[in-house]
Amino acid sequence: MASDAKGQKTGAHTEADGGHHGGGFPPFESTYFASQLLSLAIAFVALYIIVSRFALPKVGGVIEARANAIEGDLAQAQKLKDESDTALKAYEAELAAARSRAQAIGNETREKLNASAEAERKALEEKLAGKLADAEKQIAATRTTAMGNVRSIAADAVGAIVQRLTGAAPDAAAVTKAVDASLKG
Amino acid sequence: MKIDPIHQFNIEPIITLGQIGKHTIAITNSTVYMFVAVGIIGLLMLASGRQLIPGRMQSIAEISYEFVASTIRSTAGPEGMKFFPLIFSLFMFICISNLVGIVPYTFTVSSHIIVTAALALLVFFTVLIYGVYKNGLKFFSIFMPKGVPGYILPLVMFIEILSFLLRPVSHSVRLFANMLAGHIALKVFAGFVGMLGVSLGAIGWIGGVMPLALTVALTALELLVAFLQAYVFAILTCIYLNDAIHPGH
To answer: Least CB-CB distance to A47: which of B30, B38, B54?
Structure first.
């Protein structure tokens, strides 16, 4: 159907401009050379003006604006990155300083506490030593008294035993002497 | 029925304006398609958006811009950017009119030798005039390659000058012949489909699948050729302009 339409068109067309070209090869038909050159000149000059005055500046401007925007964004990002880097560095420095300060404070406190604990310990030890000495003294005194009592009890006991054995009360002085000698030995 | 693969190249006057000597001046289908190309380019470049993230139209406009710009920079150096509007106009005009020409029933502006010759001569004279204007007589040193022994220099110069003068011929015929041959081939193969169908009936219509497939493939090839020839024309323009800008090379 399409080819039929084309055929008809060809026929109509050949009738219409049969006078202009006698069936030669159209691209080499010089009848409309001047006409084509003129149209081309007008069309091409118009195109050149459109392109050079409006199209290229516009598109170039858009591309440049985009490049600038990208560059600006990248610069902004770089700036922000630098800022965050310095902030991080500052934070790290601060952290290190704080840590060393904390350590110093800790050391100081530990030393102070150690010193006070040591002093307290010494005082306590001294006090305990004093108390120990007192106690020892008391023990010694008590022991002496006790020993004194033991002597008299022993003498009594000796007197009683000797009396029971011999039936006669022994001489008190001799008993005491014997008890003393036995206690010493 | 008769299919004439040449018919598509006919110039059809729409409004005859007058006569200069024996030449008819008329608004023809060629004129219309030239302005169609100009209109499409104008619309593409001017009506596309200005978004930071481009849409499709804007992407096409920007890709064309950067494609031509990078072609010039790589072949003619940064100084070649002076000719950016010219090369961009040439590239887009040829590319768009070639692409429009692939649409059935349209006319291909660049399938006429007079059009491609005019464009090639425009480039030729731009190179010649700019070369002489910028470099004076030193421009003609492009005809004397360095390091050529004296006794064959005249021969080399003759060849160089001849090749320089023949540039517009090869420049224009390459584009013209490519478009012409491509469109004739397309038309011939597309014509086979109808001819087989009409002359052989049902068997013919089935047999017509082959040339139809070939027509589809050829159309794809022609799309490539349409772009490629515009690119070749533009890059050759850059190379020729490079001679005018840096005649020492």
So the answer is: B38
Cβ–Cβ of B6/A25 closer than 8 Å?
Answer: yes
| pLDDT single digits (tens) A68-92 | 999 999 999 999 999 999 999 999 9
Q: Is the minimum CB–CB distance between A40 and chain B shorter than 8 Å? A: yes
Instruction: Look at B20 and A34 and tell me if their CB atoms are within 8 Å.
Output: yes
pTM: 0.73
What is the phi-psi region of residue A167: left when phi exceeds 0, alpha when psi lies from -120 to 50, beta otherwise? left
Instruction: Record the tokens describing residue A64, joined without a space.
Output: 């440049």
B228-231 long-range contacts, CB within 8 A, separation 24+: B229/B94, B229/B98, B229/B110, B229/B174, B229/B175, B229/B178, B229/B179, B230/B91, B230/B92, B230/B94, B230/B95, B230/B98, B231/B71, B231/B91, B231/B95
Mean pLDDT of A106-118: 94
Q: Is B137 on the interface with A (CB under 8 A)?
A: no
Three-class secondary structure of residue B90 per DSSP: helix
> What is the interface pTM, i.e. ipTM, of the complex?
0.88
Phi first, then psi: give them for residue B147, nearest 5 degrees: 80, 15
